[in-house]
Amino acid sequence: MRYIIYTFLSISLWFFTSHAALSQGIDFFEGNWEEALQLAGEEEKLIFVDCFAVWCGPCKRMAANVFPNEEVGAFFNENFINLKWDMEKGKGLEFRKKYPVSAFPTLYFIDSSGDVVLSVTGGRDVNGLIELGRQAMRNYNPHSDYSEKYLEGDRSTQTIYYHLKNLDREGDDVLALANEHLGRDADFTDEYELKMLTLAMSESDSRLFNQFIAQKDRIVEAHGEEFYYDKIRNAGWNTLRKAMNFREAFLVEEAIQNMERAGLPDLGVFGLKSHLYFALRTRDEQRFNENLAPFLKQYGAEDIEASIEFTDLGLRVFGETSELLDNLHEGLSEASDKSEHPELYYRHAKVLKKLGRTRQARRAIDHAIEAAAEDRLEKYELLKNQIQ
């Protein structure tokens, strides 16, 4: 049972921290084709184009089930400029004048010069779309010769950067090599040294993190404020992963302090979630109870998935103790009333039932039933019948 819980925690944390801490699917670019080409050149990315028609069944399934997937979003947002155009009107009609579309969906990967790297027809599932993206990246690497130059002894900052980028594309660790080249005398007015730092910085308990936040103005100018804080946030979560793996509480505090130093806008929710995840991993009931109600009251209505996760895992890991039930009641009461989400009302009703507060439990489950979709009603009605 403990192994199952820890595995579930690891998966949950991974999903939370993947881009978008955690990303909510593919972020499609809203500009025109010329702007997409320019952005692809600036960011050294391929352009992914989903060529769809509104009546196409596979197109609808991908739009509903594949593009919103967090893993797909993390991969495609990181590696491509993403477009999704109806091929029977507007931008799509213009696109078809140069790039043939004879079946739906057609999926294109195009470089910043407008040349096709890969195109296929037919829908893909989550794994199939990610593998298609990887194939496109394997087909297109304009900087592959830099690794050869590096191995031959070229140590120009341009060569080092593209060699690091090639290693990163292959899934190899770039941290050690970046640390070797970005010492205390690093010159971040050199665009390639700044790019090395941006590529390699991945943990908040590191020298590269300190260098990264010291270069905030340059990084924001080059990539925008959202990119800067995404990198900061992900570095904090990676340090938390390390804290959880080694059960080192000081790393939790260090991650939170470093997020504060970096000016993370969502520092409050980061800190509370960090303590809650660490408490579950180390079975620290006191730490969990101290942070549960504050999280649910302040952020529970905004982050429904985390609220459900912490409620369910808290009960599973620590049991139905009176302190935990009281904290859940206190937090879920506020979170469910703010969000009016049926799953929070449902969990609040279950907690109230366990506390023996029958009248309040009935009121909560009635709210759940009132707000529920049809496929949830049977579960809610079952709980209502059990509340006597």
What does this 3D model show about the protein?
By secondary structure, the protein is α+β, with helices and mostly antiparallel strands. Among the domains are: 2-139, Glutaredoxin; 266-388, Serine Threonine Protein Phosphatase 5, Tetratricopeptide repeat (Alpha Horseshoe). The protein is 66% helix and 6% strand. It contains 21 helices and 4 strands. It has a 4-stranded mixed β-sheet with strand order 2-1-3-4, with helices on both faces. Helix 13 runs antiparallel to helix 14 (249-261).
Strand order of the largest sheet: 2-1-3-4
Fraction in helix:
55-70%
What structural class should be given to the helix and strand makeup?
alpha+beta
CATH homologous superfamily classification of the domain at 2-139: Glutaredoxin
> How confident is the prediction overall: mean pLDDT?
92
**Separation, N- and C-terminal Cα atoms:** 32 Å
Describe the largest sheet: 4 strands, mixed
By CATH reckoning, the class of the domain at 2-139 would read Alpha Beta
CATH overall fold name of the domain at 2-139? Glutaredoxin
The tally of strands reads 4
Task: Please give the radius of gyration in angstroms.
Answer: 24 Å
List low-pLDDT spans.
1-8, 10-23
CATH architecture assignment of the domain at 2-139: 3-Layer(aba) Sandwich
Proportion of strand residues? 5-15%
What characteristic shape results from the CA principal axes? flat
Task: Return the string of H and E elements.
Answer: HHEHHEHEEHHHHHHHHHHHHHHHH
